[in-house]
User: Fold this.
Amino acid sequence: MPTMARNLGGRILTAGLIVLVAGFILGPLIWLGMHAFATRWRYPNLLPDGLTLDWWRVVFAEPELFAAMQNTLFFAPVTVLLSAIVCLPAAYAFSRFSFPGRRIFLVGLFATNAFPKMGLFVAMATVFYGLNLMETTLGIVIVHLIGTVVFMTWIPAAAFSSVPRSLEEAARDAGAGKIRVFRTVTLPLALPGILVACVMSFLASFDEAQGTYLVGAPSYMTMPTEMYSLVLNYPTQVAAVFALLLSIPSVVLLLLTRRYIMGGQLAEGFQIR
Amino acid sequence: MALPPVLVILLFVGVPVLLAVGFSFGMTGGLNRTAAMIGQDVFTADGLITGEAYAMLFADPRFPRDLAATVLVTVVTTLLVLGMAIGIAVLLRLRAGWASTMLSGLGVIPLFIPVVIASWAILNFYSGDGFVRSLFAQFGAEAPIFGFTVTGVIIASVWVNLPFALLMAASGMQGVPDALIDAARDAGAGTATIVARVLVPMAAIPLIIAGTFTAIGVLGQFTVPYFTGPNAPQQLGVDISKYFQSFNQPQQAAAVAVIVFVVASGVAAMYVWANFRSAKQEGRV
Assistant:
């Protein structure tokens, strides 16, 4: 029975593929996570010599590491909020109004990605010295903001565009004012896209290390910048604990927003209109 | 309303980029004066511009090697990422079920892991005393060490860049109507033909977007090669920080950044072209 054989072969192939991809994606994370609880680990053992929670105490006893956590949990939400205030009106304008230079602006925002980040930060430092922004909260927020502009403009613009104009017009005909139409029709329908943009911006800010280090160090260390020195100066296990802590907010976000991101909101946002 | 983000980008990206480009060509006045004074081997243009900083870069045999290695990593990573993304997206489109859902679920996980952690985790996984070598050692076999190699950079770059490409590919292929696939099948097309002649062409625009974003990201990346890469050849993103911080040659650092920018702009131009073409086809322009 060739079909049955083919089915079985297909299943084995799929199972093999899943194991490979799971090993490729999850393997490094699990291997790192296990180090956070290991006393000693000798090559070529697949398991550590013993288990311990001591490394967690080490991390929480370091005031610098604790300050870095606080800094990160401050900068990421502030960046998202500021980015939303700066970019969301623009996203609406890009989506609903046609004005000269509209597409050039959109592409221009994208072009910021083409200049290498490291080179940009080095060049930005010149401007920051001139404006006295080095080692200031505002300077770091600006560095983080730069990384979020594309997400916060493009994805919500696509979300606003996908709201049918006929719905808005129907609400207008029923007597709703402009602001009311926006609040009760446009905004709720565009909300999933805006949410995805916020998540991407949060992650971008959360992840930012090079620019933060260049502008903020040593006054302001965030978790990713601290991670650089941790890897070099501490035992593997301490860095592993810190890595686990640093992953918690992102994993929570993943669980909360998986549906929207997988639903194509992100992909939809990157097509020029 | 559209102005605030454009102004932010102009002031904090546009101006610095112009300054850096000018600086790399020997314009050492104005805001560049401080960097020019502190830095070593800074060339000032007699006339309008000078290419001496670039000449100095290419006079060092290490730099062309770094450039070649960066382009190699970018090309291989982009191809691998697109290949994996297309593979999973095709499974998701043609064989929807728990297996393909699980694969795509696995594929987006890296999106949520900070790059610093990912790079470091991958370094440990493939290093001399890492899991892969430990596993092979159980059977008395010797696995290669990928930590601090160009291969390691490629592995980590694929890991980091897979989710975005996968999301784009999946969304592009979900948009292909069933009728098209059925029609091709009725005409006698096998799965391979359907993938190559129907699914991939129909999802071309999202795939090109994914490809350009991946290529641009990998070209200038710093964190991944900083953790996982070898000392030679180095990726250009690491070179920029090396020339700036270790060598105190800000002009050469700017020149490297401009070189990456030129290559990335070529890739970005392709993206814009593909997008406009699709917009024209759909009558949106």
Residues 59-268 of chain A form a domain with the MetI-like fold fold (CATH 1.10.3720.10). Chain A has one domain: 59-268. Chain A has a mean pLDDT of 85. Chain A touches chain B through 88 residues (CB under 8 Å).
